[in-house]
Design goal:
Layout: E1 2-8, E2 11-17, H1 27-39, H2 49-80, H3 86-89, E3 96-100, E4 103-104, E5 112-118, E6 124-130, E7 136-141, E8 148-154, E9 169-177, E10 180-182, E11 186-196, E12 205-208, E13 211-213, E14 218-221
Antiparallel strand pairs: 1-2, 3-11, 3-14, 4-9, 5-8, 5-11, 6-7, 6-9, 9-10, 11-12, 12-13
Length: about 220
Amino acid sequence: MTTIPSTTSGGSSAVPTATKAVGAMDQNDFLRLMTTQLTTQDPFNPVDNTQMVAQMAQFSQVAGIAEMNQSLKALVAGMGGGAGRLNDAASWIGRSILAESNVAVPGASGGYAGEIALPDGADQLSVNYVDANGTVVHSQTLGARSAGTASFAWNGRNEAGETVATGPLRIIVSASVKDQAITPAVATWTTVTGIQSPAMGGSTKLMTGLGLLTPEEAIRLA
């Protein structure tokens, strides 16, 4: 940026003005030169139409390359900067995150796991695992719990060791404090299988068994 001295009744001051790099030429400069060329040409020897079309095509090509460079710079900046962007989230692939959800999906070992938030504790706490047909495929009684979080987990098998669940299950929690039913928040573990980052910017999303999640939705990373 350069400054142009300006003299006023109160003295002189420097007024900033935007400048282009030396040798730079934009569309306005090109049109001005073309207009000058047309108005000063020899009427008995005008500029050849083919030559003029070639000049216009050359400028259009250069302008297009400049715009493409700007787009690529914006793409690189978006992919490389800021928490939760591509370079940060890529390290999460293959790891597990805890996210608030009442749906549990099997992890790498085929088991289900999560946590229940109990700010005031619970006198009675139980968990039911329900499949897509509404059938309870497994139940757990966790008993009384103090304030904090209560973990739950199930390997997806029955007492005979047979796998009875392989897909998403709805987690239904039954809890009470002083004989009053409460509805605590539930979070479940899910594996990050990939990332999705829009080419033109925007929030990076984590691809998980619970669907697309933002890095900010991860309560904990394991």
